[in-house]
Give the backbone structure.
Amino acid sequence: MTTAVLTARPGAALRGCLRVPGDKSISHRALILGALATGRTTVTGLLEGEDVLATARAMQAFGADVVRTGEGAWTMDGKGGFSEPADVIDCGNAGTGVRLIMGAMAAFDIVATFTGDGSLRKRPMGRVLEPLGRMGATWIAREGGRLPLTLKGGGLSALTYTLPMASAQVKSAVLLAGLGATGPVEVTEPEPTRDHTERMLKAFGAELTVADHNDRRVVTLQPGARLTGSVVAVPADPSSAAFPIVAALVTPGSEVTVEGVMLNPLRTGLFDTLREMGADLTITNRRDASGEEVGDITARHSALQGVIVPPGRAPSMIDEYPILAVAAAFAAGDTVMRGIGEMRVKESDRIALMAAGLEACGVDVEEEPEGFIVHGTGAAPRGGALVETHGDHRIAMSHLILGLAAREPVRVDEPGMIATSFPTFAGLMRGLGGDISEG
């Protein structure tokens, strides 16, 4: 039976070392590139959340041999491309997965139909379909390009494309489609976004260049790439590490170390922001893991101050604004978060849900069209609410972290969705001394 409610209760200080699951972005890409490549790809540290498992099933449907060999350990024997699937591709709740898979699939002369859960069927796909259409792909979809949709690939042409918004998902979909294009594919970004696709394409054998021109980043993929299987060690996900780190910062007496966290500079905006707020964060044991810098992050309870978060930082921390808002609820003064309208089209309208949840817990929040302001008092919020998550895993986890340090317990509904990105969340937090339980 699915647990209807999880409750976080304030209590003891949080202490200990832990490793959070592997990075979700890299996990999706490792499976997709392994399926596209010729030969065997071996992956360790794969995030085994529901979103990534949906991508693994999709890669099997497109013809790759995908085998789990142990905890976080997988092999993919790719055939050098995708074959037409026999059934509908169900991506569950995985927005990253479906957008990247559609890009990769468009490189081949096949047809596939994609769907997902109720949340994913509401999310916009037009931003990916538009550049794929320019390259020559065609589709049939619901209004706004929403799932379910049927996409036909193959016969793609070269493309020079400027992203209308900073989006690693759109950039990645275009680059993956470019593997089947007749000429170069060039993508210009208004702001640099996470670059895992570029790094991993190179590791699998693609010819790709990245250059900065006039404050814009231009990524160019040359045609005719022959990808070969690789070895991928997935580092710990900084988006997941954010939850125990913020929990330690706001819970008196706490000291928590998260090991092996990816430190890609295009993913560490939250840590920069927390330091600006006065967080006691130290990073030790920096090292390389499959081309990505990783390190161990130690967080200690800190007196936080409100800050103005630069809007240009949003691409490097767009998934972390919900948990940043929790840190802001404990800080003294205003924390201003703007230029984050993208949050309204994630698994939910995260701006509206975070504002509503924090207000229910006694926090003064000012919602804006493209952001929100948290008016912190420097004291622990009241808590004491049942927060509606609308099935969004990050909304649920963020409010549970708040509940560990609020004056009264905080409950969240639909906590089963946490398994999409962080299936071990509650157990790991309990291991640090946090009181999170069912009911």
In short: The chain has twelve helices and 24 strands.
